[in-house]
Amino acid sequence: MDLIDNRTRDIGQMALDGLYERSKAISSNTANALTPGYQRKEVSFEGSLRQIIERENQKEELKVQNTIKSGKNPAELLRTQTPEQIAFLNSQVQEGYLIDVENDTSDPYDPDGNNVNIEAEMMDEAKTGMKYQVVANLLSKSYGNLARVIQGQPNS
């Protein structure tokens, strides 16, 4: 496990980026709640994040299998790997991450064509803020643990 470039921290940062974009979209929706014809914005990133987590789990499984196969001769294992396997193992965590911002084309709530439901937006903002805070706290603990390891202090 690489202490500096940890996949959990990378995935946490991607989640924060997605939640930040969602919060911006909700703010825009709220600010335009009375704008005639405004279509609310929706942000999705969770599916992309799930795919990345699944891919990273597959990488970890392949690494474990390779360790078992290699025994005491890792050089031999490298010769048996296909270029696709090597590329897969060397791929970056962020590859394929997509934060998708789209207009919501659902029916308008008002006759002026605006489809923003201010109560729903306020609830979404509260949920997004809580999720952001949870992920940020987890990342903070992770970096704090890394700092303690670097300083030679026991991990709590």
Question: Would you kindly provide a brief summary of this structure?
Answer:
With 156 residues, the protein is mainly α.
What does this structure look like?
With 156 residues, the chain is mainly alpha-helical. The chain folds into 2 domains: 1-44 and 105-156; 46-98. The protein has helices at 7-31, 46-70, 74-80, 83-90, 118-151; strands at 41-44, 100-103. The chain has a two-stranded antiparallel ribbon with strand order 1-2. α1 runs antiparallel to α5 (118-151) and α2 (46-70) packs across α3 (74-80). The longest helix is centred in the last third of the chain and has 34 residues, at 118-151. The radius of gyration is 22 Å and the shape is elongated. The chain starts with 6 loop residues before the first helix and ends in a 5-residue tail after the last helix. The model has no long low-confidence stretch (mean pLDDT 87).
